[in-house]
Write a structure and sequence with these properties.
The protein is α+β, with helices and mostly antiparallel strands. The chain contains five helices and three strands. Strands 1-3-2 form a three-stranded antiparallel β-sheet. Helix 2 packs across helix 5. The longest helix has 20 residues.
């Protein structure tokens, strides 16, 4: 499931960005981490009904490799791991805002943003 970078194959910045956020769940993960910073794996699963553990783990690894998600492991018993957006992840979420506005207006018929 891991995406393989396409060096030299990007024809524009939007294409390159879509390569990073492509996949059914990555934008939803970005949204969830924007709503709940420092979120644990189980919390993310609850925020994203329908995602499997395998897919969530794979997407988080890919997003960490792209520098948009930070994984913090705490030396505790039981072990605790939290995920948060990096500065690049926050900027990406901000850039996706107008796209979300467009989707609410044109696809969802103006449904309000969930709080």
């Amino acid at each position: 499931m891991a995406s393989v970078p396409r060096p030299g194959a990007h024809i524009c910045g939007t294409d390159a960005a879509m390569d990073v956020i492509g996949g059914k769940w990555k934008v939803s993960i970005l949204w969830a981490l924007g709503e709940r910073p420092h979120c644990r794996f189980g919390e993310l699963r609850r925020l994203l009904p329908g995602i499997t553990e395998k897919v969530l783990a794979a997407h988080l690894r890919e997003m960490e490799a792209h520098g948009i998600v930070h994984r913090e492991a705490y030396e505790e018993v039981p072990p605790r791991v939290e995920y948060a957006l990096t500065e690049a992840g926050h900027r990406l979420n901000t850039a996706l805002g107008p796209l979300g506005d467009w989707g609410r207006e044109h696809v969802l018929g103006g449904a309000p943003h969930p709080a």
